[in-house]
Amino acid sequence: MLAAMTEMCLQVGLGSERYAIPVASVLEVAEPCNVAVVPGAPSALLGICNLRGTILPVFDLATILGVPRGEDGGVIVVTRYEHASVGLAVSTVIGVDELPPPSEPTQSPHLKGAVLHEQALIGVIAADSIIETVVGEPARA
Amino acid sequence: MPEPDPEILAVFRSESLTRVERMVQTLLALEAGTASEDAVDSLFRDAHSVKGSAGMMGLNTVGEIAHSIEEVLAEARRRGDLSRELTNPLLGAADELRAAIEATSEAADGVTTGGLNPGPAAIGDTVTDSRQFNGITGIATPADMHPRREIRTSAEKVDRLIDAVGETVLHSRRLDHLMNATERLDHDDRVDEELGRRDSLLEELQDAVIQLRTLPLESVTTGFIRAVRDLATSRGLDVEFSIRGADTQLDRVILDGIVETITHLLRNAVGHGIEPPDERIRHGKNARARIELSAEQRGDQIAIVVSDDGRGVSHELLGAVGTDRSLVDVLATSGFSTATEVTEVSGRGVGLDAVKSHIESLGGELQIESEPGHGTTVSMLIPLTLALQRTLLFERGGTLFGVPLSSVEEVVAVHERLSLGGRESIELRGRTVPLADIAAILGAGMAPLRDRRHAVIVASSSRRIAIACERIVKEDAVLVKSLGVALRHVVGYLGATILADGRIALILDPAALTRASLDSQVQDLRPKSRESAKILVVDDQFTVRELQRSILEAGGYRVQTATDGRDALAKLKSDPEIALVVTDVDMPELDGIELLETIRSDTARSTLPVIVVSARGREEDRQRGVDAGGDAYIVKGDFDQQTLLDTVQRLIMQ
């Protein structure tokens, strides 16, 4: 029997659903900011933000995952992407937790799987591939 | 003999390459008759030094070549002159020496590589070898100039300094803004004085740092001289090549990227511009043709011009130029060729559109003028620095946009809008200029434009377009930052900037704006998705990648590029759509053979078709490619468009 490998994850809320992003991919959590819309960018992009003098693209995690957006907390989880940072907008940030390995199956290609933890079903996000798919998308109409 | 210490080896390499470079310059000067009195002595000393240090390091190959050069030069020194017939063989020997010195390292050391100049153009290759330079030193000065005091340091350290200064400038502006916004109860002269002093100190700091990023054009011109000379000699042409403004300073990053482009244009000029001497005489011209490369600063741009007094373009071609198609457009149409026979140098026609897109990616512009029978002039206008750019900021629908000031012709008040075929335009001094809304150009849904009272006239590639806007904000020098890797596919922007008040302005790409004025459906700037197969092109040289890209895209394929084996593996991992790989062999980090082996050992991708394209044409190289699992091997010297396309099609069908 394989030893269970827990992973430190940042739990976030999107509407009523819960997701987790491995802490290894998270650079920081930032307050909601005034995004500047970029006309012609992929539909999942909310816009770009001024993060202490650098340009941070902010994608809407709910749009990427195809789930309904909750009331907007608009909190931004800044994640690592190649050598730069990318922001993922979520409704709320719940906290950091050690989660057991994802054991439940999921449909979405953006999730590594899901885990049942403290009576909640949490989708574990595959941070590396999630942005890559969005980046390749044709621009919105 | 024990292996030499890698650090000492790196220093040996960069010092020896500097000497070889100086030797080449001196040889060329001797041939042209412009060398100083002690030229032969200087040649001998350099060869002798390289021989000596190579011997100490136990590098026998290098030592032997240097020794044979030294012997020839010793004889010349005794006689008191160097016979002209020796120039070619000595140049060839210098090339061999350079190659032998470079071969002494397996891994390129990012800190101390010294080779700034493109290597010689091997006849039969469509692309010259060029090296990327990492250091900020100017390479060897010609034998007759005073040596400059130089230091070597890493590019990363310089970039950090530049970024820090840029941020300091922005910070001080934000501070000013805050101070103006909050009311200060008393107006303190001393504070104002210090602030004024701070401004001038910052300006000086910024200026000095921007200078750090620049290098004179002459640091790369030896390669150009060689390229023109070798090609002209091989084709029996008599060409006088002059360089004007070689001391013009260019941003290091821009210079790096432009070396291959200039070489390409020079080879084009020799390859299809210049006529053989007897043909020239028949047309009443001097037997000796002239090609000039010039560089000069024009405002906040640098103009680099390659001009020749050769054939010029044909009358038929000029006929294709119209009011909305400039000569650049006609020549840069992919696949177009101006040579009636395909030669190994030019006649492929795919090069010029790569040049155009490269210049535009630097925020610059390509212009071409030509007169049949008289010659051609190609001008590249590039921004002075990639750092601060003077920009015109305006507002449209609550969004802040900016356009580089160098592309703004003027700003007008729109009184009357003319309409034809559903497309609007305005009248400007007797001519019409298409009037467009950015939302339409970017293909984006934006709030409708309520107030069209102002328009910014943007000019690029001899086309103009009037961009409607609600409010002109101001003119400012801004730090344009890239939108980032995550948004690299988004079309239409040079980047974005953060203003003093913290707001973001999106900086538009003038070339994209004016291009839109041509399309009948102005929306069409979005990347189109196609069903066609996606191919990964891997090569460390920009020109080769772009050449292969144009060929494949003209063949209807989608293309992704990578700069070396490691980059290729990353791209393969992240993009499952890639159906075939075209790869070079000689690349830094992971070479083509290693890449191939890695692909074949990965069960998920082991059957991916791979075409190896290499300059190495020996039988054993082909065998190596086949043994590693390559599906096809094409030699760069034999290269032609149809072979590549046929091979790709055959492999993709399997």
Structural account:
- Chain A has 141 residues and is mainly β.
- Chain A is built from 2 helices and 10 strands.
- In chain A, the strands form 2 sheets. Chain A has a 5-stranded mixed beta sheet with strand order 8-1-2-10-9, with no helix packed on it. Chain A has a 5-stranded mixed beta sheet with strand order 3-6-7-5-4.
- Helix content of chain B is 41%, strand content 22%.
- The chains are: A mainly beta (141), B alpha/beta (654).
- The interface between A and B is large, with 33 and 40 residues.
Question: How would the blueprint of this fold be written?
Answer:
The complex is a heterodimer of chains A (141) and B (654).
Chain A: E1 7-14, E2 17-22, E3 26-30, E4 45-51, E5 54-60, H1 61-65, E6 75-81, E7 84-90, E8 92-99, E9 111-117, E10 120-125, H2 127-135
Parallel strand pairs in A: 2-10, 5-7
Antiparallel strand pairs in A: 1-2, 1-8, 3-6, 4-5, 6-7, 9-10
Chain B: H1 6-32, H2 39-57, H3 60-79, H4 87-102, H5 155-181, H6 189-212, E1 214-216, H7 221-234, E2 239-244, E3 249-251, H8 252-273, H9 277-282, E4 289-298, E5 301-308, H10 315-320, H11 327-332, H12 351-361, E6 365-371, E7 375-383, E8 388-396, E9 399-404, E10 408-413, E11 418-420, E12 423-428, E13 431-436, H13 438-442, E14 454-460, E15 463-469, E16 471-479, E17 493-498, E18 504-508, H14 510-516, E19 534-538, H15 542-554, E20 558-562, H16 565-574, E21 578-583, H17 592-601, E22 610-614, H18 619-627, E23 632-635, H19 641-653
Parallel strand pairs in B: 2-4, 9-18, 13-15, 19-20, 19-21, 21-22, 22-23
Antiparallel strand pairs in B: 1-3, 4-5, 5-7, 6-7, 8-9, 8-16, 10-14, 11-12, 12-13, 14-15, 17-18
